Amino acid sequence: MGPLDYLKEHENESMAQLKDLLRIPSISAQSEHKDDVRRAGKWVADYLNKLGIKAEVCETGGHPCVVGEYKKAANLPTVLIYGHYDVQPVDPLNLWKTAPFEPIEENGYIIARGCTDDKGQMFAHLKGAEAYLKTTGSLPCNVKFLIEGEEEASASKLDEFIKNNKDRLAADVVLVSDGSQYGNDLPAINFGLRGIAFVEVKVTGPAKDLHSGSYGGAIANPIIVLCKMIAQMHDENGHITIPDFYDNVYTATQWEKDQYAKLPFSAEEYRTSTGAPKLWGEKGFSPLEQNWIRPTLDCNGITGGYQGEGGKTIIPSWASTKITMRLVPNMKPMEICDKIEAYLRKICPDTVKLEVVKHGGATPVQVSTDGPWLEAAARAIKTGFGKEPFFTKEGGSIPVVETFKTVLGIDTLLVGFGQQTDNAHSPNERFAIKDFHRGCRTSAALLDELSKVKK
Ligand code: BES
Ligand code: MN
Ligand code: MN
Question: Are residues 43 and 187 in the same domain?
Fold first, then answer.
């Protein structure tokens, strides 16, 4: 029996094991789940150790990560597999049809927080390795694992851990499955991810909430002031109005545009899948371009004033918002934070005090679109999915990919097993059971193909 047969034969068992991991509420952004994140890490380390891959839970100063290593032979390539076992918060909980940490199977999907992002995709790689070990007694090349616990939390200590463990993590190529295929039955290799910059903005007016009858009209309302500022971030064409925001912004190559032209795309299907009444976006760019190669600015949340039941007639003391900007190549997170701060200071009226907390973010990445690793990955996808991959980009960010390049000097293969419509970060997150099993098979095929690349 070969690795692929093994996976076929053990599909039910694989799914049951994944469900075990999905039951752990490893929400990295919420401190009350700190121990759960660690427990998920321990689950992963235990799983690897049981396979005979030496692994341990490592301290980073933040949530722990798991490092595993299987040594085969010095003349063979070393593949570093990265993934994350932390998940996003579940709110709004009332929109979930089932409990987020009680995985269930329905209509060909497994439904639970983290199933596609990223526990299911990450676990597919543990199964790929398992299939090899159980059927051949070894892995076809050297394999390292770096599975982390704070990808979804904005402040990560993993970079520092990587800098301090360069030798331990040294490899020839990194393999990451933490994104999506282009569509159903349309597997893809991603050659770019957007970066991100994150700021929190607060405006404060009166020292405390005031009666809106006694003071309304004479004291500026911080919520209105903040909303006006937010409304000045885009012009009527969807361009961002922050001065110098688009300095050096990357423009797509002809090769890249040709790849996009090959992709089947229905704007109407795309719209319907979101439930939005109409598409929106920067004029002069297609939806794929808007999503993959243009920078954006979004408010992720806005707070201020009375949110409880019934009415309360006040002028609130303050209002705040969280803003993220997606970045494309040549944009630097901290520079962008500085630019938005300067603009906010310029447009903020003197009726309120302004505070801006700049968190920086993640640098955009673009990986090579040819070479032996890529060709090997394309062959593996053909084996696992039965189709040739498309070349795509992703609008999301995986901060560590840039670190792999700059600190370890290694290129990353981005092979997503999920779908854009899997509800990542949303209620009712799902992962097609078919995609999970194809992911497991692709992982085994990747180990085989990558082991044959001359390093
Ligand atoms: N898996 C995603 C990244 C992703 C999103 C890839 C969409 C492909 C398509 C990852 O877990 C994620 O959510 N990243 C965050 C990073 C942020 C918290 C710094 C993101 O993109 O918002
Ligand atoms: Mn992810
Ligand atoms: Mn995510």
Answer: yes
pLDDT for 142-171, tens place per residue? 999 999 999 998 778 999 999 999 999 999
Domain ends where: 328, 362, 396?
362
Nearest atom within ligand 1 for CA of residue 397: 21
Last residue of a domain, one of 362, 381, 406: 362
pLDDT digits (tens, 9 = 90+) for 84-129: 999 999 999 999 999 999 999 999 999 999 999 999 999 999 999 9
Domain count, the chain: 2
Q: Do 182 and 208 fall within a single domain?
A: no
Q: Are residues 241 and 380 in the same domain?
A: no
The binding-site residues of ligand 1, defined as CB within 6 angstroms of any ligand atom, are: 117-118, 151-152, 154, 178-180, 196, 362, 394, 396-399
Residues 343 and 396 in one domain: no
Q: Write out pLDDT tens, residues 267-313.
A: 999 999 999 999 999 999 999 999 999 999 999 999 999 999 999 99
Which residue has the CA at smallest separation from atom 7 of ligand 1?
Answer: 396
CA of 150 to the centre of ligand 2 (A): 10
Which residue has the least CA distance to atom 15 on ligand 1? 397
CATH classification of the domain holding 10:
3.40.630.10
For residue 275, being part of any structural domain is answered with: no
The pLDDT confidence band at residue 261, using thresholds 50, 70 and 90, is: confident
Same domain, 371 and 344: no
Residue 127 sits in the same domain as residue 223: no
Predicted confidence at residue 410, as pLDDT, reads 96
Q: What residues are neighbours of ligand 3 (ion), with CB under 5 Å?
A: 117
At 192-250, the pLDDT tens digits run 999 999 999 999 999 999 999 999 999 999 999 999 999 999 999 999 999 999 998 99
The pair of three-digit structure tokens given for residue 327, joined into one six-digit string: 């970045």
> In terms of residue numbers, what domain contains 306?
195-249+295-362
